Amino acid sequence: MRKVIITGITGQDGSYLAEFLLKKGYEVYGIIRRSSSFHTGRIDHLYKDPHEQPRLKLVYGDLSDGSNLASLVAEIQPDEVYNLGAQSHVRVSFDMPIYTVNVDALGTLRLLDAVTKLHKPVRFYQASSSEMYGKVIETPQTETTPFYPRSPYACGKVYSFYQTVNYREAYGLFACNGILFNHESPRRGETFVTRKITRAATRIKLGLQDKLFLGNLDAKRDWGYAGDYIEAMWMMLQQDQPDDYVIATGQTYSVREFLDEVFGHLDLDWQSFVEIDHRYYRPTEVDLLLGDASKAQKILGWEPKVGFRDLAKLMTESDLELAKREKILQDHEMQTR
Questions:
Q1: What pLDDT digit, counting tens, does each position of 219-264 carry?
Q2: Is 333 a catalytic site residue?
Q3: Which of 21, 109, 177, 319 could form a disulfide with 202 if both were Cys (CB 3.0 to 4.6 A apart)?
């Protein structure tokens, strides 16, 4: 049975990847940070399945602690490592630049160093980001488009990208960078703009919320479905040779267009509820991201399955159910007062 380590297993991508790899028959080790409270909501359902539970193991670790990572890697002896752990919120990275770079950049280096010390072949996946393109030099962006990062988060990811390439070339490590463009799902964190919109819109629909405050509505992104994108990660590590791949839909939409889809699905006019708050603007904006995944389609045979409108509908319907449960609880509390 193949063993795999996933950092960031409790996040959106980590939860989908764990699900996917368990179905493939892997023994999955997820590294989680020690905390006074559990943050495993996205993977709790895997423990309810008696067939999956014995093959899913959570271990304490942190990308800021190199000795801890080295010990875990040496003990587990993984066949594959997926580095998805990060401080992943771009706007927050301006407020916490040192922490962001320590985890997102140096954390990758610590993990790469631990993996290369094993006396066995290991395949390594690094979660790179379309944010590395930043102030884009060309559109669409491909694997050869120069990077122009515009945030501490993006700078950290560029560092990790080149360290991954360097370990591949210097030590012969089977290491791949997946340059993933924006990918969303009902498991997306509520501080990210797509989920922030679907969560607020459904609460507004049920009278639980009055307003939604957003920043730049004109920013355009290439939005895909996280469930599709994690399959591409796995595909990269199954090839004969390691390489770097852009994973994207090849279509771009603005935040304004996402609002149209979500509020329209709920028969609401978003302009009656959305207000602009300049606190949500970044010090340096990234206006347009559009990926060309031709290489992944040709070599990996990967293609996105869920389109923009279906993604918006999927997320809206999921959050509508959440809002309905919230409404029931609220009504019950009012009746019992």
A1: 999 999 999 999 999 999 999 999 999 999 999 999 999 999 999 9
A2: no
A3: 319
| CA nearest neighbour of 200 among 220, 187, 214, 183 | 214
Q: Which of 19, 131, 184, 261 is catalytic?
A: 131
| CA angle (233 as vertex; 227, 235 as ends), nearest 5 | 105
Task: Kindly name the residue from 15, 93, 128, 129 that is annotated as catalytic.
Answer: 129
């122009």: which residue's tokens? Answer: 148
Q: How many CB atoms lie within 10 A of CB 132?
A: 26
**CATH class for the region spanning 193-219+252-289+307-335:** alpha beta
SS3 of residue 183 by DSSP: strand
Beta strands per DSSP E along the chain:
3-7, 27-32, 56-60, 80-83, 123-129, 174-180, 183-184, 212-214, 220-221, 224-225, 245-247, 253-254, 274-276
In the chain, domain spans: 3-185+224-247, 193-219+252-289+307-335
For Cα atoms 122, 61, 225, give the angle at the middle one, nearest 5 degrees: 70
Compute CA distances 192 → 88, 185, 259, whole Å: 10, 11, 14
- Residues 161, 153 contacting (CB under 8 angstroms): no
Q: How many CB atoms lie within 10 A of CB 281?
A: 14
Token reading at 106: 């140096």
Query: Residue 183 corresponds to which tokens in the numbers above?
Result: 């990918």
The DSSP secondary-structure symbol of 226 reads H
C-alpha closest to that of 200 among 259, 252, 279: 259
CA 293: distance to chain centroid?
Answer: 17
Catalytic residue among 153, 159, 229, 245: 153
Per-residue pLDDT tens digits for 129-154:
999 999 999 999 999 999 999 999 99
Please tell me the CATH code under which domain 3-185+224-247 is placed. 3.40.50.720
Q: Is the dihedral of CA 226, 73, 35, 100 positive or negative?
A: negative
Specify whether 129 is catalytic. yes
Q: Which of 60, 59, 66 is nearest to 3 (CA)?
A: 59
